[in-house]
Amino acid sequence: xxxxxxxxxxxxxxxxxxxxxxxxxxxxxxxxxxxxxxxxxxxxxxxxxxxxxxxxxxxxxxxxxxxxxxxxxxxxxxxxxxxxxxxxxxxxxxxxxxxxxxxxxxxxxxxxxxxxxxxxxxxxxxxxxxxxxxxxxxxxxxxxxxxxxxxxxxxxxxxxxxxxxxxxxxxxxxxxxxxxxxxxxxxxxxxxxxxxxxxxxxxxxxxxxxxxxxxxxxxxxxxxxxxxxxxxxxxxxxxxxxxxxxxxxxxxxxxxxxxxxxxxxxxxxxxxxxxxxxxxxxxxxxxxxxxxxxxxxxxxxxxxxxxxxxxxxxxxxxxxxxxxxx
Length: 326
What we know:
Blueprint: E1 2-6, H1 18-26, E2 29-33, H2 39-46, E3 51-54, H3 61-66, E4 72-75, H4 85-90, E5 94-96, H5 103-119, H6 121-129, E6 148-152, H7 156-165, E7 171-175, H8 181-186, E8 190-191, H9 194-200, E9 203-206, H10 220-225, E10 230-234, H11 243-251, E11 255-260, E12 281-283, H12 292-310, H13 321-325
Helix pairs in contact: 1-12, 5-7
């Protein structure tokens, strides 16, 4: 019997792993759901597994060598930077992610953060709870129709967000060097270079994948090129924004506000980090993906990927498909 093992189910506290367990076992595949925190626990659970699922496990070559039967790794999410894909490919291991399971949910979260920052909802709520009734406190706010909306990365989530924002009649521009020119016009945005994005956008929503090239894509140097009083929102990956530099830009007033669902160093950002003292920073715990519908879809898509691969086919969501087929 083939076996599937999920290594770190504790990373998705409260999730119903019975969904994939039922689907896989009905397909004749053993399913083991673990809460592994050490390499030894992972090897004990999954040494005989043909397919392995993970959230935040650092899946490096050394660990792969300890999981000798594994031929498929499935990341419970869109990003897969926790998996060393070249090392997996060198070992003939397929790597799958879930590129399309929570697009409307993340786009909605980003949109909510943008509206919150633009209208100072959370900031005013904090003031009210502290006994302060100050209608014009803090940075100046503007009608959405007067603002330029920028996207750093223009994949599926950013495209969805652009559709959500279209009725607000904002001028929208996007930076993404990997897309053909026609994609931008088809989605109602202007194509822009990175420098143009920084100089023109009043709001920037980050949707780039995390790669060595995008590490600290937003830092002191890039903040200096942004408009005074601009807003930045990140629902992508934390290290795309230098957290220290962002806190400083908010503190000195260069940026008006920030909405962060992901932060550099999460989930272990020190409680004393300056970002927590920034009153115009809205912080959520990497939960933009979350909805009842997305959760069900997440588990179903993992199971489908495993069944398809163990059935002899390479799934559509295999990120190293071309390399494996060479």
